[in-house]
Amino acid sequence: MNRGNEAENFNKYVEATVKALFHSAVAAFYVDVQHDWFHTVRKADKMPPSLPTEGSYSVAIERFIARFIPASYQAILRLKLSPEYIRNHLNRHETEFSLEVPLYSENAKRWFRISVTLIDTLEGLPHHAVISGRDITVEHAADQARYDLICHLQIKNDKQNLAIEQRNRELLIQNQELANLNKELLESRDSLFELADDLQNALAQNSMYHEMLQMQQAGLIVYDCKTFALLYMNDIALSLYELTEDEFPKLTLQDLRDKIHLMDDTPPISEMPVMAGAGATEEVECSITHADGKIYYVNISYKNVVLSDGHNVVIAVVTDVTRQALNSQKLADKAYSASHRLEAVEGTLRHFADYIYHVDLTDGMIVDDFVSNGYLKLLEEEQIPIPCKYDTFIQRAKDLLGLEFISYNGRHNYNWNCDTLLNDFYHGITNCEIEFHHTKTDTYHRITALMAVNPEDCHVVMTAIGTDITNIRKKEYENQRLLLQAQEEAQQASALLEEQQAELELKHQSLETAYMELMEFNSIVQGLQSIFSSCYYIDINQRKFTEIKSNPVMQSIFISSRQMTDSMDVYIHSEVKPKYQKLLEDFMHIDSLSYRLQDKPYITMEYESESLGWMRSYLVPAQYNQSSQPTHVLYVNEIIEEEKVLQNHLRKVAETDGLTGILNRATGERKIISQLNANQSGAFGILDCDDFKGINDNYGHGIGDKVLIMVAHSLTEAMGAENIVLRLGGDEFAFYLTDCNCKLQLSSVVNKFFTILDSIHIPQLKDRKVTVSVGAVLYDGKSGKTFDELYEIADHNLYESKKLPSNRLTI
Predict the structure, then answer these.
(1) What predicted TM-score, i.e. pTM, was given to this entire model?
(2) Which helix or strand (DSSP H or E) is residue 714 part of?
(3) What SS3 class is residue 733?
(4) DSSP symbol at 269
(5) Which residues are registered as beta bridge partners of 634?
(6) Is residue 380's pLDDT more than 60?
(7) Which end of the chain is less enclosed by CB atoms within 10 A, N or C?
(8) Do 714 and 760 touch, CB atoms closer than 8 A?
(9) What element of type H or E holds 606?
(10) What is the pLDDT of residues 167-215, one digit of tens each?
């Protein structure tokens, strides 16, 4: 590789190397991954002195691991710091990785974070990298202490949770005892239900009763009174009329009328009595013949109603009475037998029930005297004539006994009368249960009602069986009250435990936060003591300071008898170089410190002192008031003389050409562009060596390098230090003469360069002289030309000079 190109590549990435060296890293190494070579960039005093400064990277890293790294970490460190691993895992997208390992130094174990940072690549593979090590012993110790505290608090919290769980188990046992008591009450209630079920089973054994149950299902049709359009048909109605859900919305009532055969003189639809107005009813008997020839006998009950939105509709209940018609004779034959069986069942029920009576729901009448064991004494004394209207009977019971309905089949606010019971029967409800309260006697009663069709007249008859359940209900209510009371006490106890647990959690969080803050502050202080040369704790309001660590120079100035402002004033005027005194005064201005540090982790500045060299100062907030403004800060100083020397060296390396020592192309071009942007007039020129390739081919690259160095020195001597001289690359050079406004002045300077160049003799070249060709352009500072435009003109003039004899200038 050409030495000039190698220097260019090194200069290109040297700034990236500087960025990779964090100021707190105790060691940093510049590594050539592809050629297994390294060079020490920085090594602090705390690092082992036996570490080599440069040489074979693989040999050095193996010695370092074997000597200073514990055996349990050696394998992973050998793997991740090997050149092969770095080449395979670093690229343009993943430019860095790090790992934390312990290190034995001077019989002490310390923890380090080792970072590998990619600097540049060659042919797509990592070429150069920086490996840096940072001492994190204090941070690691703080993390371990924080983990131990969290474990301790977790154990304490687990014990508290166990106590709470024990209390919850005790409450659960109490709730279980109450639930068992409630279960006993429910079992008592279920025994009465079983009695009613026995009655229903006895009635259901009658075959005629089974036949009648099949007739309870009915079709339902709703149509509009004005348009006769069908609004609704349930599944049973659709089945009877042989329709589907998609067909019926397109039909009218007349279409349904066409499908049936009326058995009486029913008037046209518009003249039917049900159309007279709301509340009007009508019944029609008819038959429907299906497509398979089967005939169905149906009974249609119409009722005119007005919906809540004012819409007038007719509801038609279509009951399939086919089996009733065919078996009417069979029912008549068995009526006598069924009647006697029913009387036998009722005789049995009288031994268990407190009162029994029968109601013909179709006529709305009580059909015989009720049997009572004294519970309806008030009604008996009224001598209500039997048969009588059942609704009247219920109203008299409400007036005399203070009857209040509680529930009907588990529902509340039910209107107990003949119409609602009959409607329920038509919808398939054959037995029901109602509870009510006699307010005047303070007793509770349950009526089990069984509804069936009387085969003699096909009326719906209800048998009401009444039972006094006062003792059961009052015991249930008392148990419910006790259960609610126990649940409320349990909830209060649980809420109290939750409050106590919340208080403990808040205290735990407060302690953890305080501990974290303390450990963080302690970690910061210990870290500062190990890194910085001096550290002071400043009270902004009192303008006082406390020394944490100091160096001999500052210790003699920052004494406890002085305020911070006075000590700082003495230090600035006695130790800080004049160039930086005003800057440090502004940086340490204590009245504006809270404002400048608000919402910032720290502020910093660099300055040069007389005794300690280059320093870097930090102001870090340590405590805040309720308004989130800093009240105390840490003032720390770090000696960065070594870092500054390294930075200046790297900056010089980055800006100069490695072979000739003059400016490289990037730096020189940047300075020329700066002159152009400032409208600085001058002359820009480009030159190259005549037949430089012949020199390299005939005398070797070493002589070629001497020629380039000679040309660079001659050009610098002729142009002067105030002008810009740079190497463009290869054998090409450029210059910019400031304030050069005429060709005569430019020619004079270039001729001086020709003279100096002609006077230099290189023995290896013998009598051969080194000559150059120059192309230049004048710039008045007003035309606004760019660097590229001047370069293009000068390059064209250089081409013209090449056509002429050696040492020629074309402007």
Answers:
(1) 0.33
(2) helix 701-719
(3) strand
(4) G
(5) 537, 620
(6) no
(7) N
(8) yes
(9) strand 603-609
(10) 778 777 876 776 676 676 556 445 534 533 443 454 344 333 334 334 4
